[in-house]
Design a protein that fits this description.
CATH superfamily of the largest domain: Butyryl-CoA Dehydrogenase, subunit A, domain 3
CATH architecture of the largest domain: Up-down Bundle
CATH class of the largest domain: Mainly Alpha
Mean pLDDT: 97
Shape: globular
Radius of gyration: 21 Å
Order of helices and strands: HHHHHHHEEEEEEEEHEEHHHH
Structural class: alpha+beta
Number of strands: 10
Largest sheet: 8 strands, mixed
CATH topology of the largest domain: Butyryl-CoA Dehydrogenase, subunit A, domain 3
């Protein structure tokens, strides 16, 4: 008897349009044919495959959810499906696309001047310009309002000083969207700036030695009296709501992407359990093993339906409540991490080998559990919404 696939179990395709299935399947082919076979090697080498960027651009996945300026203008559900297929390959692949589109490009699209949009977005959509997003600092993670990066006006220029940490894409980025407090103001004085590679006092050293998201380029942004022209400021948003609005977009995508990692772990583990013989029979025939696999499958299907539900709401109304995004990100990341850990256990000693995807996805998901709002922060966001009381 052939095993039932997760998609067949959920009947997810019956809820998708022809266009949505076409978008998903084109990215699925790309990941399976161009990335999957060397995912372990890229993780081991701590290398992002920059040679694939033109192909990603050709698929229309860079800034896929944005309209105009050479962007594909896809729906929220289509964008989510894209990220799920990319993370099936590796979280580093999904992170590259997510940061480029949902953070760097979205910030320019939502808050930039028309001149900035025309200058940057078409080439970013084509993968000719790579962007990063500078918010997190060494001592300012869950509390971005406490950032110490400052910007001061000096004639026709702005001078930026500070350090950003854990910045995806920064070592290879041509530009950075950097958030800074203007002079000595509080959180409401936070302003976005576009800093181009080559600006004096702008450096992006790579972070080495990561045991997670190794196939993602991660670095710092060091701003040492970095001078940028007045035209570098993002004029249409001021305050902490600017970067948080970008993060809401990215978190929505993450809630889809992590399910791709869970599915990659699950599918490879089912195949392994059906062929791994112990005590004379495949381990998949054991009741305890079937219970473990069923629990994983049920949680993945629930995550798929949760993401699809909120994706439909986003497409219908143009936005989601931040609390809804927190719910979806929190639950689906937890599900994916639990699945990856369980799959690693089923694989036994083989589970620590890069030959199988479980340990790689498990390590990647440990970062996703933390970044763009930790599990605990999203818990408090929901707690505040449900009780009306702030526990931060």
């Amino acid at each position: 008897m052939e095993p039932l696939s997760l998609d067949a179990l959920s009947e997810i395709d019956t809820h998708l349009s022809d266009e949505e299935r076409m978008v998903r399947d084109s990215v699925r082919r790309f990941v399976r044919e161009r990335y999957a076979a060397r995912a372990g090697e890229l993780f081991e080498e701590e290398r992002f495959p920059v040679e694939l960027i033109p192909e990603l651009a050709e698929l229309g996945v860079l800034g896929a959810g944005l309209k105009g300026y050479g962007c594909a203008g896809m729906s929220a559900v289509e964008y989510g499906l894209i990220l799920q297929e990319l993370e099936y390959g590796d979280g580093g692949l999904r992170s590259f696309v997510s940061v480029q589109g949902s953070l760097a490009m979205y910030a320019i699209h939502a808050y930039g001047s028309e001149e900035q949009k025309q200058k940057y977005l078409p080439e970013m959509a084509q993968g000719k310009l790579i962007g990063c997003f500078g918010l997190t600092e060494p001592d300012s993670g869950s509390d971005p309002g406490s950032m110490t990066t400052r910007a001061r006006r000096d004639g026709d220029s702005w001078v930026l000083s500070g350090t950003k940490m854990w910045i995806t894409n920064s070592p290879l980025a041509h530009l950075a969207v950097v958030w800074a407090k203007v002079d000595d103001g509080g959180p409401e004085s936070i302003q976005g700036f576009i800093v181009e590679r080559g600006a004096r006092g702008f450096e992006t050293p790579k972070i080495h030695g990561k045991m997670s998201l190794r196939a993602s380029e991660t670095g710092e942004i060091v701003l040492d009296e970095c001078r940028v022209p007045a035209s570098a400021i993002l004029p249409n948003k001021r305050g902490l709501g600017g970067p948080l609005g970008c993060l809401t977009q990215a978190r929505f995508g993450i809630s889809w992407g992590v399910l791709g990692a869970a599915k990659a772990c699950f599918e490879s583990t089912v195949e392994y359990a059906r062929t791994r013989v112990q005590f004379g029979v495949p381990i998949a025939s054991k009741q305890l093993m079937q219970e473990r696999l069923v629990e994983m499958a049920v949680e993945i299907v629930k995550g798929d339906l949760l993401a699809l539900h909120f994706g439909r709401i986003k497409d219908r109304h143009g936005r989601l409540r931040p609390e809804q995004v927190s719910l979806c990100k929190r639950e689906n990341v937890r599900t994916a991490l639990d699945v990856a850990r369980s799959c690693r256990a089923v694989l036994g000693g083989n589970g620590i080998l890069l030959e199988y995807p479980a340990i790689r996805h498990m390590l990647n998901l440990e970062s996703v559990y933390t970044y763009e709002g930790t599990h605990e922060v999203h818990t408090l966001v929901l707690g505040k919404a449900l009780t009306g009381l702030d526990a931060f």
